[in-house]
């Protein structure tokens, strides 16, 4: 790794202040993705600002919401009794991620900001519009088995790798940010951006902003939720296709359903039309199949990832059948 | 000559006495320490931020040449200004070794010094590297070639809530390794794995992929298993680290080590230290209820010989032993 400086910040405000006056700096919490990005030359930073001593690592439940401190470790959140009881999809998504070692190290904020696993992005010798804007996207005509069928375009078809982000997208989480311009909260639906013609801009975060917390509203539907992750080996692997689902039924009729998908979109993918197609109807194989077809109606598969069109529909059938007690 | 060796930094508020103690303790660790205690006061001048670092620089001319060498500037995209002025000063001369009156005076001069514009014309502004502006302070009569060094005072650095290390500079990291207090002087880019293997000579921890995929580098930090290749040593200031060398009690092996031998749970052995450390944590975490559970919770450790069957058996075996 190229030499870089390092500062331990003592408070969120101080971390943001140091970032504002230190060119080419970034924040580090776990470092589990950042160190590899810097080794590979996918990212270069002259200065790391350690945010592990800011006092923003708590997990707390109050009347209205679950608050995940940005530096809470994946393991702590996954094991937290309130998370397991009221938001099982979060716990399952976290436990399906990475390895036990990495879950001890990696933070919630860092998890949301991890970079795509696209091999062209990670290989600094390849062109990549995300890494070097305007250099081209070899994935569109190259190895694209792991890439998106939804939300892509001529500039980028990389997927976002976070399982947690998929689960948070299903549960309408909000991301708390602190930056030079002060505090603000961004709904997760607006947090991740479609690549469009600027795939290097992945989130709505402004320069120098730090994630300080992630809020998840308490809802009854979240308590009946699951995460299904399909991958190339049994464990310790990124998703080929994943689904986060929360479901509330009365009798057979769907009262509320929340669905988000990983591995298929250029951002954690949620399509409210799919949920609307299920809501108020009896949960049947036919209803799920119709919802699934709606999900992939606009899909644009590539040579290597055509199989995802079918796979994501089957994943939807599987998880909703389980959650709805259809089998 | 081109300057070589490491720069170690002191926090600004480190007193001369603490600096001397720090240098002495480094010498006791067998590190090469300059014979003359001389310092440069550094200032980060991309902004108004003041690092408060004071470098020990023995060979001032060599150091200046090192900083200004075109190859280094090109490679690191580092800019001038560099060593600005030379002031005679010897640490042992300070009228007040407890508070460091001379250092305070130099700090004041440093903060008042003007900032030079970046003279490298072909560098895009956004890639600007943090620039060190330095007023060099050296002991009178220092001319000998040698390595430049500086050090963070052990206690002050470890106890500090906030501290900073400039790019290319080093810092002292204090941690407890296998029950022993250790101090290592290193750059921020050094991983915990490299610090353990290359600096402390604890080569039991293996470097496999060096990117968090194989688990050969697994150690315990404050009782939890981590991949030591994915964390910087400087981020583990004050931590308690256990490596495979720290498991046995004298001649008596840890129950997990015994179980690995009993179950023939290795072939080439390269992944074994990581497997053992991971297994110790896996058992502590209580994830040994079934073979499937062990496989899931040991999944961060790969074995290219595919001795998984026996590894799983050894973990189950050791779990029984530990619980007994």
UniProtKB/TrEMBL annotation, chain A:
SUPFAM superfamilies xref list: CO dehydrogenase flavoprotein C-terminal domain-like (SSF55447), FAD-binding/transporter-associated domain-like (SSF56176)
GO molecular function: FAD binding; xanthine dehydrogenase activity
Gene3D superfamilies: 3.30.465.10, CO dehydrogenase flavoprotein, C-terminal domain, Uridine Diphospho-n-acetylenolpyruvylglucosamine Reductase, domain 2
Top-level enzyme category: oxidoreductase
Domain of life of the source: Bacteria
Keywords assigned: Oxidoreductase
Keyword Cell inner membrane: no
Domain FAD-binding PCMH-type as annotated: residue spans: 1-221
Keyword Electron transport: no
InterPro entries to which the protein is assigned, alphabetical: CO_DH_flav_C, CO_DH_flav_C_dom_sf, Diverse_Substr_Oxidored, FAD-bd_PCMH, FAD-bd_PCMH-like_sf, FAD-bd_PCMH_sub1, FAD-bd_PCMH_sub2, Mopterin_DH_FAD-bd
EC assignment: 1.17.1.4
Protein name, entry field: Xanthine dehydrogenase YagS FAD-binding subunit
Organism annotation: Thermocatellispora tengchongensis
UniProtKB/TrEMBL annotation, chain B:
Pfam annotation, one family: Fer2_2
SUPFAM superfamilies attached to this UniProt entry: 2Fe-2S ferredoxin-like, CO dehydrogenase ISP C-domain like, Dimeric alpha+beta barrel
Pathway: Alkaloid degradation; nicotine degradation
Domain of life according to the entry: Bacteria
Residue span, 2Fe-2S ferredoxin-type domain: 171-247
Keywords in alphabetical order: 2Fe-2S, Iron, Iron-sulfur, Metal-binding, Oxidoreductase
InterPro entries named in the record: 2Fe-2S-bd (IPR002888), 2Fe-2S-bd_dom_sf (IPR036884), 2Fe-2S_ferredoxin-like_sf (IPR036010), 2Fe-2S_ferredoxin-type (IPR001041), 2Fe2S_fd_BS (IPR006058), Aldehyde_Oxdr_Iron-Sulfur (IPR052914), Beta-grasp_dom_sf (IPR012675), Dabb (IPR013097)
Residue ranges occupied by any Stress-response A/B barrel domain in the UniProt entry: 2-91
A GO molecular-function annotation: 2 iron, 2 sulfur cluster binding
PANTHER family, alphabetized: OXIDOREDUCTASE WITH IRON-SULFUR SUBUNIT (PTHR45331:SF2), OXIDOREDUCTASE, IRON-SULPHUR BINDING SUBUNIT-RELATED-RELATED (PTHR45331)
Name of the protein in question: Xanthine dehydrogenase YagT iron-sulfur-binding subunit
Organism name: Thermocatellispora tengchongensis
